[in-house]
Specification:
single chain, alpha+beta, endopeptidase fold (from Nostoc punctiforme), six-stranded antiparallel sheet, two-stranded antiparallel ribbon, 8 helices, 36% helix, Peptidase_C40, thiol protease, cysteine-type peptidase activity, Papain-like_cys_pep_sf, Hydrolase
């Protein structure tokens, strides 16, 4: 009987010792302790603090902060050419002027490509047919793909380039500029189009509209007309 009681006491003590790691605190300052001593305490720590969730969270890649705004193309100045769109004609002209017989091949190529882009929608900052055009993006695309000329990236800087042309001397392919950002032509240069002939020009007007032909004689454009310029490539070919 004493022997049985001894075995029972030993078994109880063993069970208690086995359960102790579940409640053990992590050891501090025992970096040199034997592995056998550290193991129960480490296991107790892992059990208490449920490492699975922590390890899963640590394995997830860091999430980048949400961008505050869409990035602009490098070196590309966004136009604001639809600020004074109130009063702008809803539609362009129906009958497009024909080019004179003595128009140079270079100018014909420019106008031909520009006309093929009619009805492409206006997109602020747009510079490609697949996405849409703003005014300077349209002009820049036509010149780049028709004659290989790289124009500045917005209407204000395009106005500063090239040769000044009197209204009566304008030819197909010349650039026509407008002050649409202020009322009745009092603002800065903010819009550009490509002159066709007979007082007509092609451009990408403003939000909600598409590439179309308009007349310089129409009241809205006449009041905001700022002048015409001839890009270098056309000036050399004239």
């Amino acid at each position: 009987m004493p022997t049985k009681r001894l075995f029972a006491a030993a078994a109880l003590a063993g069970a208690l010792l086995t359960s102790l790691p579940l409640f053990a605190e992590p050891l501090n300052g025992q970096a040199n302790a034997p592995i056998a001593t550290l193991a129960p305490n480490l296991m107790g720590t892992l059990a208490v603090f449920a490492p699975a969730a922590s390890l899963t969270q640590a394995a997830l890649p860091a999430q980048p902060a949400l961008a505050q705004s869409k990035s602009k193309p490098s070196g590309w100045a966004i136009e604001e050419d639809d600020l004074d769109a109130d009063g702008m004609p809803g539609n362009g002209v129906d009958n497009v002027a024909s080019l004179a017989n003595d128009t140079s091949d270079l100018r014909k190529t420019l106008i031909s490509l520009a006309m093929k882009l009619r009805d492409i929608r206006y997109v602020r900052g747009g510079r490609d047919p697949s996405t849409g055009f703003d005014c300077s993006g349209f002009v820049r695309y036509v010149f780049a793909h028709a004659v290989g000329l790289d124009l500045p990236t917005n209407s204000a800087s395009q106005f500063l380039a090239g040769l000044k042309v009197n209204r009566d001397d304008m030819k197909p392919g010349d650039l026509v500029f407008f002050r649409t950002a202020g009322k009745r032509g009092q603002g800065r240069i903010s819009h550009v189009g490509i002159y066709i002939a007979n007082g007509q020009f092609i451009h990408s007007p403003s939000r909600g509209k598409t590439v179309r032909v308009d007349s310089l004689d129409e009241s809205y454009w006449a009041k905001r007309f700022a002048g015409a310029k001839r890009p270098d490539a056309l000036a050399r070919s004239s």
